[in-house]
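User: Please predict the structure of the protein below. I'd like the answer in structure-token form so I can feed it into my own downstream comparison script.

Assistant: Understood. Taking the following sequence of 180 residues as input:
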Amino acid sequence: MREYFSLCLVMASTACVNPRDAEIPFDGDPLPDFTLADLNPNSESYEDSISPRDATGAVSVWYFTHATCGYCQSQFDILYTLQEELDVAYGDGMVQIYGINGAGSEDGIPDISDGNSLPLLQDTDDVDVWGAWYSDWRDLVLLDVDNAWIGLFNLTTHDLSDPSNLTEVREMVDSGILSR
């Protein structure tokens, strides 16, 4: 797996490939746009409408989660710490991490938001970002500065509390920064 992401770094001008990429039909184009409300009361953008286009010019990481899931909450906390580290490494605004809560999991928002200020966008059946972006539960979808696909990393099988998995996500972010 490590060799795979190293190859992606070598090929930083192209999108990383994973087994599910065949299902992802974006071919370097920006992913479909949407607008969703940020429901994390600790976020600077609380109650604002957020779009991927708001992250144009930055590498963005989109975590598809269920706020009611304890494991998902732990991963969101690790992503919060990662956001702080990336802000120090690259400067505020160069990388932005977002959560996208699945429709029907709104009850867990107070728990997943506790002590965490990452924007948590609430998906709806009408918008269905999960479907539009071909995403599964616990996917991290990484986009480049033009909102185009960098890669996908699933946290169901790659717990971020394992330092090697966190390093792989950082390498994917680095590939997006290097491609600027």
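That's the full token string. Helices lie at 2-10, 70-90, 109-113, 129-132, 163-178.
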